[in-house]
Amino acid sequence: MSKVKIITGTSAAAEAARLCDVDVVSAYPITPQTTCVEKLADFVANGELDAEFIKVESEHSAISACVGASATGARTFTATSSQGLALMHEVLFIASGMRLPIVMMNANRALSAPINIWNDQQDSISQRDTGWIQIYVEDNQETLDSIIQAFKIAENENVLLPVMVNLDGFILTHTVEPVELPDEEEVRNFVGIYNPKHAYLDPDKPITQGPVGVPSCYMESKHDVQLAMDNAEKVIIDVNEEFAKKFGRKYGNGLIETYNIENAETVIVAMGSICGTIKEVIDNLKQNGKEYGLLRIRTYRPLPTNHIREALKNAKNVAILDKNITIGLNKGALYTDLAGILKDKKTTNYIVGLGGRDIKPEDIEEIIKHAEKAEDGETKWIGLNKQ
């Protein structure tokens, strides 16, 4: 029987891992992720979770331990943030290249210098080419639900890729919200028992894992990862739909979510918790007879280009918000990804919320007004202090 708890985003992530009956947890504490690791350690210590909790000396070691655990066929979970995710960088490629269905919670936090513990999405955006599926959530309930879905997606035999579930640091990790925890048995029936068809580290069926990729085979291995990422689109849609039937909650079609988009000529595109603020602004403007829409990107990798193009077919102005910056191009990563597939639209880019800078309702209204008058391809930084 489900129950509702008032918990933080990090607690929601830990509860999800417990509900999925993970076999191995390996993580290193880093603000604002630490409370997730502490909660999981408590679950293991008090017997609520029958898992190996591997203590390590760094995030690089944590993801390396997860690679080894997953290679044996264990259901594996980790969590990190910011500099910790950056330290994992080289091993992230190993996890995807070895087709290991590890699930990670990343608490989005700015990268230094200067040292900053507050939120933006530069850390996970910087890992966009590592071969990990990336999901960005709007609230704590979606954090829990997405991690549950992530195991079912990652372990699908047509995918077998690691999944990174991203939630905004402090905005979600340390804010309490009502979160419905599904029945443990129902969750475990939903995700199923992980029985890898590959003979992972079985001495009776020896295979080679992570071998040297000589030029005659390396390119094909990367193509296989791309094909798996292509397959993931349908699997994400199917899992989201199955989850809705089982637990009564769904998140758009699993890839994107639209809000008041039908009659809107100007549509904002964004990811993460900022979408809640955008929805509130849209509702307030709608009361005054003004129609604006939101396209929330839930799954950033794989980037669902066809779904995005279809959702925006009636829009004239597309305002793309980025909590990251590609230095030297003066664009955000989401904008650069989308501009090429929206050539028939006027697109403008807005750099927002870097290092935890507040994004207020009046900022969203400023973006809407600017997008209607701006030149195609413009970039505007929102909320800069006057210099």
Automatic annotation (TrEMBL):
Keywords: Oxidoreductase, Pyruvate. SUPFAM superfamilies: Thiamin diphosphate-binding fold (THDP-binding) (SSF52518), TK C-terminal domain-like (SSF52922). One of its GO terms (biological process) is response to oxidative stress. It holds the Pfam family POR_N. Residues 15-239 form the Pyruvate flavodoxin/ferredoxin oxidoreductase pyrimidine binding domain. Residues 264-364 form the Pyruvate:ferredoxin oxidoreductase core domain. It catalyses: 2 oxidized [2Fe-2S]-[ferredoxin] + pyruvate + CoA = 2 reduced [2Fe-2S]-[ferredoxin] + acetyl-CoA + CO2 + H(+). The keyword Transferase does not apply. It comes from the Archaea. GO terms for molecular function: pyruvate synthase activity. InterPro entries: PFOR_II (IPR033412), Pyruvate:ferred/Flavod_OxRd (IPR050722), Pyruvate_synthase_PorA (IPR053390), Pyrv_Fd/Flavodoxin_OxRdtase_N (IPR002880), THDP-binding (IPR029061), Transketo_C/PFOR_II (IPR009014). Its EC number is 1.2.7.1. The keyword DNA damage does not apply. Heterotetramer of one alpha, one beta, one delta and one gamma chain. This is Pyruvate synthase subunit PorA. It comes from Methanothermococcus okinawensis (strain DSM 14208 / JCM 11175 / IH1).
